[in-house]
Design goal:
The complex is a heterodimer of chains A (about 375) and B (about 475).
Chain A lengths: L4 H32 L29 H34 L4 H15 L3 H12 L11 E2 L3 E4 L2 E4 L1 E5 L1 H29 L5 H18 L4 E5 L2 E4 L5 E4 L2 E3 L1 H28 L2 H9 L4 H31 L11 H13 L2 H30 L5
Antiparallel strand pairs in A: 1-2, 2-3, 3-8, 4-5, 6-7
Chain B lengths: L13 H24 L10 H18 L8 H10 L3 H27 L18 H13 L7 H15 L1 H4 L2 H4 L2 H21 L8 H15 L4 H23 L23 H27 L4 H16 L2 H11 L12 H27 L2 H9 L4 H16 L1 H14 L9 E2 H9 L8 H29 L5
Helix pairs in contact in B: 1-2, 1-4, 2-4, 5-12, 5-19, 6-9, 10-11, 12-13, 12-15, 12-19, 13-15, 14-15, 15-17, 15-18, 16-17, 18-20, 19-20
The chains are: A alpha+beta (about 375), B mainly alpha (about 475).
Chain lengths: ~375, ~475
């Protein structure tokens, strides 16, 4: 080892400075907590929380522990993020492709959408949807049914609930379809590589994914019925829908604004990705006789995806982090339930804020590790 | 006239198809327009469903008829090329045109025709349109927050002065161009801080004019005897030193009372708010996050492993958490980490939190620029005998920063759009003020107007910034 003083000194100074800053903070925190009579520890997580949460995916009430409250918040955050990511991806891809359309009107319409939504703060959009747009919806008793079964009211969206019989058979049939499709794909690839024959995999896949579940209905004894929400009068002026699934307006406002906002960024990623594929690639593919669809599927998309995926992942991460703005409209996500209500009740500022931050950190780091792995897998293998 | 095949428009029957197609197209447009502007249904005699679909069908057939390649009419060819390349595009174009025609009347009537502008109470807002009276009445609050009305000239004055001082760069001649960086990085932020501290906040004035004048006169007299080589440094240091010595060591308060300034009325930061607070926060975070981000970008590419790991840890930590939790931390956790009698204003805490948060993003952007530079630049600089700092300041950073202008601009845009989040620490900028005004019992039910108003303001700011950054990018684009 040939360590020079010149190399060691700056590192040493930096480390000492960092340690000193952290030491200073810890020391102060200890003194402050002693003075205020707060003790440090995560034991409160198993205590009874004694507060209620409006909307939760798992069973929860005041008698459950703080840890359960944390789980409720976390699940709600994940729910919003997943719905938001799905809608934003679909919308973003459509708008991104539309921005490249030769049709002047479509092109400008997409550009207008992107410029409009990305230049308004997300929080403002959430407030707009929640406090202005959704508040203009009718009361439950005045709501008109959409397709006879959906009810969009000021108290949220009511959709029919599925009631399954023998749902496990249905589930197995889908799994079987997916396995069959995978096998056929591998087989088709082999056949194409060996004999040059093309098997219409796409059509077969679509057929399988519809027919197998259908068979499960016909033969497997799976029954599906719907429970349509029904208006019920609580008092003279108070109405409510019973049955079905109700989505609270907070959830609707949040997913709507998150996906509309993030879709603009995804659209730009998609556009940049498709534009990033050289013109020569398209022309070369067309000149060897591929149809426009094949050009898109076999030549453009595989190359464009390499450019699209890393920034899009970043947008997914942003969406997940932005979902914490839910706290502003009282959607019970992690920040509101845990860093809000639980913190107010226990006063454990350091523990709760650190757990919350650590959770988000874990979420984003795991997504980015996953995407880095995927990115490496599809990257061009340079020789 | 040759035989007409209506399924295949061709050039030989150009005129027939043109008249037929365009008249069908215009009928469909007319139907939708009449329906939308005068609520008069041209096709009311038809069944409901058909009457709804008819304009689309008519327009589609019309567009199909005029889709003739190489017609020789320039405008027709352009139209075909832009909105009418095939059936699918034609339907989409028609739908978009219909949506635009349909949406103009309600938007127009809400914004202008049925809206109420006059008056200063809720009673005038009886129409179905927007109530801009609400915005008019609350405008001061939306702009200045709870800042006292009589003192608002201080904010205006500071902003006008700062904008004027900020635009110095445009008017600087080539002779002074080289000092611009120093000016913008060091002097201008300092002036801005002094303005905000003395004027907007009304902080205590510690400058006493009488001592200042004496110090200035003394230092000018002595200045004549200083060799011109050192005169610049002399005038940079001595007058201030002399002022401090005079004020605190030699003279006493009783002797000189001449021209002493009292501070302006103190306005605590809790009262600041509205759009001006948005600007103040964005401005300071912008100033702070840039150098911090640059330091961490360099740290992340440093050859010293410990510095590198610390930088990576810092950047990844801030990038991994949402801003709202950072603000929560600054509000509830940060005071615990400070000595007990030590108090930091919540605005300052919010600014620190946002700056650190955005600095991580700036660091990643700058790192991208540093990585994009070819190795040859580093090697050339080193071969000229430049050290680390000289190499970075004169060779690497100017090129790297030029590369990352769009990225930095995006980060700053994100910063401006993130400022409404400071509601977490209890500060109310424009969106926060809107939420407050919305709950005022005298003005219930005007949430929409408020949000639309704020959206327009933010949209203008952000759109202007993104266009400006695009211009900068074009201006500094260097081919390599």
């Amino acid at each position: 080892m040939n360590l020079k003083l010149k190399d060691i000194v700056p590192q040493l100074i930096t480390v000492i400075a960092v340690v000193l800053i952290f030491g200073f903070f810890t020391y102060n925190a200890q003194i402050n907590m002693e003075n205020r009579g707060i003790d440090f520890g995560y034991g409160f997580l198993s205590q009874e929380s004694s507060f209620d949460v409006q909307f939760s995916l798992i069973e929860y009430d005041g008698s459950h522990s703080y840890f359960r409250a944390y789980l409720v918040g976390l699940l709600n955050t994940i729910l919003v993020s997943v719905i938001g990511i799905i809608i934003a991806t679909i919308l973003g891809v459509i708008v991104g492709v539309a921005r490249l359309s030769p049709n002047y009107l479509i092109n400008k319409f997409a550009a207008f959408y992107v410029e409009f939504f990305r230049n308004i703060p997300l929080l403002l959009q959430i407030f707009f949807w929640y406090f202005a747009a959704l508040r203009a919806l009718p009361l439950p008793q005045d709501a008109e049914a959409i397709f006879g079964v959906f009810f969009l009211t000021i108290k949220g969206l009511y959709v029919p609930a599925f009631i399954w019989q023998n749902s496990h058979i249905f589930f197995y049939s889908i799994v079987a379809a997916i396995i069959a499709i995978t096998v056929i794909r591998i087989h088709a690839k082999k056949v194409q590589e060996n004999q040059g024959k093309q098997i219409p995999v796409f059509l077969i896949s679509i057929g399988l994914i519809f027919i197998l579940p259908l068979l499960s209905f016909l033969i497997g004894g799976v029954r599906l019925s719907f429970e349509v929400p029904v208006l019920k009068q609580l008092a003279t002026t108070s109405f409510i829908y019973e049955g079905g699934v109700s989505l609270p307006p907070e959830l609707i406002a949040l997913t709507l604004s998150l996906s509309l906002y993030t879709a603009t960024f995804i659209a730009e990623c998609v556009r940049a990705g498709i534009q990033g594929v050289g013109k020569g690639q398209k022309e070369a593919a067309a000149s060897i006789g591929l149809t426009p669809n094949q050009v898109l599927k076999l030549v453009i998309m595989p190359q464009a995806l390499r450019i699209i995926i890393p920034p899009t992942t970043n947008q997914y991460l942003n969406l997940t982090k932005n979902s914490s703005l839910a706290a502003a409209i009282a959607y019970p996500d992690l920040v509101l339930v845990f860093a809000g209500t639980a913190l107010m009740q226990t006063g454990k500022a350091i523990e709760i804020v650190s757990i919350t931050m650590f959770t988000y950190l874990t979420l984003s780091i795991s997504i980015s590790i996953l995407m880095n792995w995927y990115n490496k897998k599809i990257a061009i293998q340079e020789k | 006239m040759s035989k007409i095949n209506f399924l295949k428009p061709d050039k030989t029957n150009l005129n027939t198809f043109l008249y037929l197609g365009s008249s069908l197209f215009f009928i469909s447009l007319l139907d939708v327009s009449l329906n939308s502007f005068y609520s008069f249904n041209l096709t009311g005699f038809l069944p409901n469903f058909l009457s709804f679909l008819l304009p689309l069908i008519l327009g589609f057939v019309g567009l199909y008829f005029i889709r003739i390649e190489f017609s020789g009419i320039k405008k027709l060819d352009l139209l075909n090329k832009h909105i009418n390349t095939n059936n699918f595009n034609a339907i989409l174009s028609l739908l978009i045109i219909f949506v635009i025609i349909k949406s103009i009347p309600p938007i127009l009537s809400w914004f202008v025709i049925d809206a109420s502008f006059a008056g200063d109470s809720k009673d005038v807002c009886t129409g179905s349109g927007a109530c801009w009276t609400y915005i008019k009445v609350w405008l001061r609050r939306f702009m200045y927050g709870m800042y006292p009305n009589a003192e608002q000239w201080r904010i205006n004055l500071s902003f006008v002065a700062l904008v004027l001082l900020g635009s110095v760069g445009y008017f600087a001649t080539d002779k002074f161009k080289k000092y611009l960086t120093l000016y913008y990085v060091v002097i201008y932020p300092l002036i801005a801080f002094l303005f905000i501290f003395f004027f907007i906040s009304g902080g205590p004035v510690f400058f006493d004019f009488s001592y200042g004048i004496i110090a200035a006169i003394l230092s000018i007299i002595i200045g004549f005897f200083i060799p011109s080589k050192f005169r610049f440094y002399y005038f940079l240091i001595v007058p201030f030193a002399l002022y401090i010595v005079l004020k605190y060591f030699i003279f006493f308060e009783e002797y000189v009372e001449l021209g002493k300034l009292d501070g302006l009325n103190w306005v605590e930061t809790g009262a600041w708010g509205g759009l001006s607070l948005t600007f103040i926060i964005s401005f300071f975070c912008l100033i702070f996050c840039f150098p911090i981000g640059m330091a961490f970008a360099l740290g992340r590419r440093s050859g010293f492993p410990l510095i590198r790991y610390i930088s990576i840890g810092f950047i990844e930590f801030w990038r991994g958490v949402p801003l709202i939790t950072v603000l929560f931390m600054s509000a509830v956790m940060f005071p615990m980490f400070l000595p007990e009698d030590f108090f930091i204003d919540k605005l300052v805490r919010a600014i620190i939190a946002i700056s650190l948060f955005e600095a991580a993003y700036v660091a990643e952007v700058i790192r991208g620029g540093l990585q994009a530079l070819p190795r040859g630049q580093y090697e050339a600089a080193k071969s000229l005998g430049m050290g680390y700092w000289k190499m970075h300041i004169f060779v690497i950073l100017p090129q790297a920063l030029k590369l990352v202008i769009p990225g930095i601009a995006n980060t700053f845009l994100a910063l401006v759009k993130d400022t409404p989040l400071i509601f977490v620490v209890g500060l109310l900028e424009i969106v926060g003020m809107l939420n407050l005004a919305k709950t005022n019992p005298k003005w219930l039910g005007f949430a929409m107007e408020g949000y639309v108003f704020a959206a327009i303001i933010f949209w203008i700011i952000c759109y202007a910034m993104s266009k400006y950054s695009y211009n900068l990018e074009q201006k500094y684009k260097t081919d390599r």
